[in-house]
Amino acid sequence: MARKIGISRQFFVKSMFFLLFLLLMGVVVIHNADSTIRKATTDKLYTELDSIPKRKVALLLGTGKSLKNGQPNLYFRYRVEAAAALFKAQKVDYILISGDNSRQGYDEPTDMKEALVAQGVPSQKIYLDYAGFRTLDSVVRAKEIFSLTQLTVVSQAFHDQRAIYLAQKYGIDAIGFCAKDVDKYTGFKTSVREYFARVKVFWDLTFGVKPKFLGEKIEIH
């Protein structure tokens, strides 16, 4: 009986050490992914209209108009405001909205377009990519479908960094215009999820993950 208890304790201790090892490895991987993306994109982010270079097209990354609880999504509002400001300052000539339209009643690109038009951006200056299901899809499709090798990404700073890093890996000269961020309490879940999304970037690049859809080319003119 005592021998069985001893074996059980040994197994428990070994299991705890193994779990601790996995946890530490996870922390290292997350830290390295975050640090690499930050260092590679720090000088590519802009917060002021006066200092950002002009580009032909802004890539506005999509998000839902409303939260699950029905409240307005501030990420949506701030991204639209940033894109509209960029256009009105003549820092871009066109806006490409790339977002998710994969289920009935959910249409990020159209919702964002309507919000931009309401802020005075001409509809003919807006192009829609309905297959931007992920940031990787949005970036790769900007090049493969819309033939863009230079662009300005518009989203919150953390999202701009990840998109710009992906763009660099796919041969796109990208800079980012940072939309206003939400407060730490409201954006806590998004902040946590972002760390794992950054790890996923390196998984996707290592294994050559492709966008869900490609298709025929569309010219922005």
From TrEMBL:
Pfam families noted in UniProt: DUF218
A GO cellular component annotation in the UniProt record: plasma membrane
CDD domains associated with the record: YdcF-like
Lineage: Bacteria, Pseudomonadati, Bacteroidota, Flavobacteriia, Flavobacteriales
Name of the protein: SanA protein
Domain DUF218: 57-179
